[in-house]
Amino acid sequence: MNLFKDSDRSFDSCLKCTACSSRCPVASVRPDFPGPKQCGPDGERLRLKSPDFLDEALKYCTGCKRCEVACPSDVHISDIIADAKARYGKGNKFKIREFLLSHTDLMGTMTRGTAPIVNAVTKTKTAKVVMHKALGIDQRRQFPPYAHKSFRSWYKAELEDKQVFARNVSYFHGCFVNYNLPELGIDTIKVLNAMNIGVQLLKKEKCCGVPLVANGFHKKAKANARFNTDSIEQAIDSGSECVISTSSSCAFMLREDYPRMLGETEGNPHQQVNYITRFLTQEFKNGNKPELKPVNLRVGYHSPCHLIRSGGVLHTLSLLREIPGLQLHQLESNCCGIAGTYGFKKENYNTSQDIGEPLFHQIEEGEFDYIVTDCETCKMQIEMSTSAEVIHPVSLLARALDV
Amino acid sequence: MKHDCLVIGGGLAGLTAGIRCAEAGLKVTVLSSGESALTFSSGAIDVLGMDTSGMPVRHPFQGIGRLIVEQPDHPYALLGGNSVYRALDWFQGQVAETGLKLVTAKILEENHWRLTAAGALRPAWLSQPTAGTLDWDFDEIRRVVFVNFTGFLDFMPELASAGLKTNKAFEHVCVSSLNITLPLENGSGATADTMRSTQLARAIGESDIELISSTLLEKVGDADLVAMPACLNVAGRNWLEELRRRTGLNIIEVATLPPSVHGIGLLRALRSRFAALGGFYVPAVPVKQGVVSNGRVESVQTPDDILEANHYILTTGSYFSKGMTSKQQGVSEPVFGLDMQASEEFCDSRFLAREGHGFNRTGVVFNKHLQPSINGQSIENLHVAGALLAGYDPIIEGSGGGVAISTAWKAAGEVIEKMGL
């Protein structure tokens, strides 16, 4: 029998140095979480012998990947834990909750035309109590409001076939821009058009799969990966230079996780996916930089975990530094605690808020006009837990455009 | 966008260089990869602990004067005792700006003793405030107790007390250990044996502190020194001060096995100081290669980008941090392929040889401006600092922290001067 079949063998490189444990946001606030070293490489050895060694505490891992950033030996700690949860986990107690939280595109579609009602209802105490008791979604959590009109319908009505540019990119807008924050999509188009680049949408797109993987719907995630990959391929074939995303987590999934999920490490189109600030800094460097007027604001920059993991903090910082007049302060790198759908679950709410506490404190102390961050769930968490308003780097850049 | 200065490496040396550049008004970015070795460290800074004959050094800056006469290739020889002192004094001030008040000995320009988790005494220049400083002679110490919380694996009081007993100065001192079983009020039912020091701090609550206080008063009320694992002052909860107040005992914290609360605290302070001065810290971006032509670095390559700066400071550390790579063919510096100076003997067959191992003295060759060279040609806009420098042994000398800080301070000074600031 091959014990190692399907197992991520990178655990063999673990030196037991504990660098990962010192960086784990969950371990720092939960004394009962054994930390990434024990849950990942240490535990994997045992689980290969028998699944009985599965530690229930694995469920507390948020998948932030800070352990992988810390690891000096390139052990895929977070992936090992995620795979173990998927392979040996006993399933979720709140199946319906996991389904509702993770099927972001389906939820978005269902609110079409009913957004004002849904927004009003999710704010009511009764709805919150019902969701808390029946579903296990914490009643203290605020839901992001749904937009009255989806980004895709706006694009179809306003823009389709109206952009005439020699260069084009395709935009994977993701669920959040489509259903919750179309303004960000509009800003993205505004910025790219100002740089003489047209923006096309993919023929069709499904949820990137981040929340699906986090909630144990691996088959569905893989199906979405296949679907989106085909769309990306099609876009590239029809003349798009690349695919951009304004969500640091969607971009990470599309670019880094899809090849692994689909078992296609070569000749795939995933390397054509760029997180927006990566693409923009490259363009600026090549001389394609729009006129920028001063934006006299004091902002704090929060780096999302998945952007850190992909090495993208450099791009966002470089981009923000191009905006004249902007007073930019880099916040200490702390996880905000929400970790996608993690913080919505009632058993995780306190952990989530405890993790975020040092960040919230810094934000309140800093007297910023805005907090800038790349991730939609970081935005939800910071806006719910502090008095700050959170803005995406591209929206800030859009303000600097001289139009 | 062109940076004034790119610092490659985000550990003690890299952040020190970054802070000095940022303080001078330079646009500086620190590129880091992996985790700084500070998270494993005691959070104390040694400057020079042992002289060349293996004797402890009481006056480190005078000791540097003697050391560099014997070893003119030592990195300290570029600075001299006075400049090393200035660098360390400046460093202490920068860290203090964040609220972390590192302490020195009570007597001017003297080392103090620092107690380790193995019960050894090490001469140190700066220590964490809760670790305290032990005076040069121990006349007033008659009883020492190492206390642990039953089950906690990263601190072994029996080992520590046995270690301290081997020290001649403690021959007639009563040294013992004590384990206290805690309820761990905030531990969510988990026990100490599954926790790291960073977690134990969170698990301790008021009832635990009450139990520790009463046990100490009952069992070791006459101790002159009580040493506990460093896990009592985390996330704004200063239980140590509370214990000192309730018992009136002289209680100190000893840095544990990693992860080390004290080391992490120092790293956090440095990052926060750097950010406050307007510096940018970029995590998870390893520099793969440098492009050098005509004695100048033109750019450096990361997995995603080609980055350009006027000046570069290389602080990628030693073997563990991948600042140096050791293979059968020899030791090399992987980013630029800098000239190396290797010791004749790579290692001593005795693991704990007093003379140290050659591989620790092996490192990058540098000139008096801390510029390295490739095939004998100096690189004008590149400076090196910290653990990858040749010509010193941080372990045998007890000089790792001091060399990292003072050479980084000097490297930054060279850049600032060249930028005309």
TrEMBL record, chain A:
Secretion signal span: none
Top-rank lineage group of the source organism: Bacteria
InterPro entries: 4Fe4S_Fe-S-bd, 4Fe4S_Fe_S_CS, Cys_rich_dom, G3P_DH_GlpC_su, Helical_ferredxn
Keyword Transit peptide: no
Enzyme class: oxidoreductase
Enzyme Commission numbers on file: 1.1.5.3
Pfam families for this protein: CCG, Fer4_8
Keywords tagged on the record: 4Fe-4S, Iron, Iron-sulfur, Metal-binding, Oxidoreductase, Repeat
Domain 4Fe-4S ferredoxin-type as annotated: residue spans: 5-34, 49-81
GO molecular function: glycerol-3-phosphate dehydrogenase (quinone) activity
Protein name: Anaerobic glycerol-3-phosphate dehydrogenase subunit GlpC
Natural source organism: Parendozoicomonas callyspongiae
Gene: glpC
Automatic annotation (TrEMBL), chain B:
InterPro entries with a match to the protein in the record: FAD-dep_OxRdtase_2_FAD-bd (IPR003953), FAD/NAD-bd_sf (IPR036188), G3P_DH_GlpB_su (IPR009158)
Catalytic activity, EC: 1.1.5.3
Ranges of residues in domain FAD-dependent oxidoreductase 2 FAD-binding: 4-403
GO molecular function: glycerol-3-phosphate dehydrogenase (quinone) activity
Enzyme class per UniProt: oxidoreductase
Keywords: Flavoprotein, FMN, Oxidoreductase
Pfam families (UniProt xref): FAD_binding_2 (PF00890)
Name of the protein in question: Glycerol-3-phosphate dehydrogenase subunit GlpB
Source organism of this protein record: Parendozoicomonas callyspongiae
Gene this chain is encoded by: glpB
